[in-house]
Amino acid sequence: MNYALEIKNLSKHYKKGFSLENVRFCLPSGCILGLIGENGAGKSTTIRLIMNAIQRDEGEISVLGTDSHSPEFTRVKQEVGVVLDEANFPEVLNVRQVNKVMQNIFTQWDEGMYFDYIQKFSLPEKKMFKKFSRGMKMKLSIAVALSHHPRLLLLDEATGGLDPIVRDEILDIFNEFTRQDDHSILMSSHIVSDLEKSCDYIAFLHKGKLLFCEEKDKLLETYGILHCTRDELEKLPRGVVQGGIRSSDYGGVEALVLRKQVPVGIKVDYAGIEEIMVHFVKGEHAE
């Protein structure tokens, strides 16, 4: 299998106490991988490490088949589109001036494609960037990221600040992007429903540690939510309950379970990605 991104034993330690520890996952070419986790889990740190915006302490990162510490990575960066949670264009520039700047940065800059996105996103061409709303800033960042013909997109909260209709339009654009077998996306977001809709794989970071990286469909097939009494829960075979046990509104308990190991005749409800995420980190620990 070809991988757009390979991360092995990646670690980063900060003096203030946070550490990204021994993170490892792969993004197959032609796929979208969603990176989920609470604020401060390490999602943005991971994306910045991939692009060498900060230096890792340990581990290996391969981007489009190239070690990110190798001299060749400078060339490979031309094939990576990046949208960070805060757009960083000079405040006094307008859309047309941004185009001129990008022409001198990207060897495959496509002016026609750029202005097609500007029109599609209804962005004003003469308004200074500092007067843009957060949503407008994100749209401009996405237009720039897509307009130099990247093979890999790294998106950190790229749909943040956008209304549901525009978010859906952006997700359609991302899905269209990965129709080409050599195009891939790593996308972090707090809007888990967006990731559940678009992603092929889900990686879950919690307090700097990777709890799982799995195919989305396999996660949804593997886990379910069981509502029952505590006595009924204790009668289940050992290992069925995963993550935590939470008290439910009706006085019983709610637990994340392995669907195939629940005895026949017991109803198991659907568990979405957000529910799986919450049960892995909240509630009392299931022994």
Q: How would you describe this protein?
A:
This protein is of the alpha/beta class and 287 residues long. 30% of the residues lie in helices and 29% in strands. The chain is built from ten helices and 15 strands. It has helices spanning 43-50, 73-76, 95-103, 111-120, 134-146, 164-177, 192-198, 216-222, 230-234, 273-281, and strands at residues 3-13, 19-28, 32-36, 58-63, 66-67, 80-83, 152-156, 184-188, 201-206, 209-215, 223-228, 241-247, 253-258, 269-270, 284-285. The strands form three sheets. A six-stranded mixed beta sheet has the order 6-7-8-3-9-10, with helices on both faces. A five-stranded antiparallel beta sheet has the order 14-11-13-12-15. It has a four-stranded antiparallel beta sheet with strand order 2-1-4-5, covered by helices on one side. A hairpin with a 5-residue loop joins strand 12 and strand 13 (253-258). Helix 4 (111-120) packs antiparallel against helix 5. The two termini are 37 Å apart. The model has no long low-confidence stretch (mean pLDDT 91).
The number of helical runs is 10
Number of strands: 15
Helical fraction equals 25-40%
Between the first and last Cα atoms, what is the distance in angstroms? 37 Å
Reading the helices and strands in chain order gives EEEHEEHEHHHEHEHEEHEHEEEHE
- Beta-strand percent range: 25-35%
**Any idea what the radius of gyration is?**
21 Å
Molecular shape: globular
Question: What does the average pLDDT come to?
Answer: 91
Low-confidence stretches: none
Q: In which order are the strands of the major sheet placed?
A: 6-7-8-3-9-10
Main beta sheet strand tally, sense and closure: 6 strands, mixed
| Structural class by secondary-structure content | alpha/beta
